[in-house]
Write a structure and sequence with these properties.
Layout lengths: L15 H15 L2 H4 L13 E9 L5 E2 L2 E2 H14 L4 E12 L4 H18 L2 E10 L7 E11 L15 E4 L5 H11 L15 H10 L5 E4 L4 H13 L2 E5 L7 H10 L12 E5 L4 H8 L9 E7 L7 E4 L5 E3 L13
Helix pairs in contact: 1-4, 3-4
Length: about 350
Amino acid sequence: MTLQNNISLAHGSGGTQMQELLQTLIWPELDNKILREQNDSAILKNRGGELVFTTDSFVVQPIFFPGGDIGHLSICGTVNDLAMMGAKPDALSLSLIIEAGFDIESLRKIIVSIKKTADEADVKIVTGDTKVVGTGQADKIYINTSGIGWRNEKIPTGWNTVKSGDTVIVSGTIGHHGVAILAARAELPFEHELKSDAAVLSNITVPLIKKFPNIKWMRDATRGGVAAVLNELASQANFDIEIEEAKIPVTEKVRGAAEILGLDPLYLANEGRFILICPENKSEEILLFLRKYEVSKTAQKIGSITHQATPGKVVLTTEYGSRRIIDMPSGEQLPRIC
């Protein structure tokens, strides 16, 4: 069978053109034993422990950007949500909403990227769905991925395990994804190419949790960046979080781009970075462990949990010694980021 050059409404009709799309492009790329059965639902084996389940939708614009694409992002985002709960990702669903007129070759590139990223994360695409909407009713392609993973029942991952004196660690330099998307979208002529940090994190977090089961809490710093994640934790745990500007890892490229654009790196989205809270006496060991991996080689301790008279705030000590409140972001600095 030979596909047309562009997606048409018939590709979502459930008929011969849809079967052609699935059999020629999607199923061969994502092939595995479970998907090959072509059932309406996937039957999975119980791996033991607690089942962790998540879902996410991806509407990023542009769909191809330096350092990744919407397919790569859709796998990283869902796998990383499982990883932040201490789970080993096991299986994903994949749903595509495609605009009529979208070119087949771009779809092929996205599917190939999905397969490559899923292989890296050691997960299988076991079920899915394809819908086609009319021209102008979407923006090329939207993707939804849901995922399940398994974790040890003894892993503490809740904010209620956090205590005063615990250490705040960020897994690497921040802000890459946010500035990369904005630069690509606006075709900004920066001297150095800005690349997204989108990456699979479960390959780090699974061995990390196994070695350090006393890690209190983890969260990937996506929309709203580090500022949103820390504010959410401070509000939930009812502690202050104090961070030091001098210790926050930001590359000169990202810092320079953010200054030109009037953005604060603390609020920029990341797709391959996470925050973790751990006991202070384990922080140096954890940093050494993280720095063994390429994606977290710039991990840094940036602050600590403190108990104050008016808790629930994130407080930044600047490089000049002054202090200011880091508020929860209001609105979206950059929409359609993921």
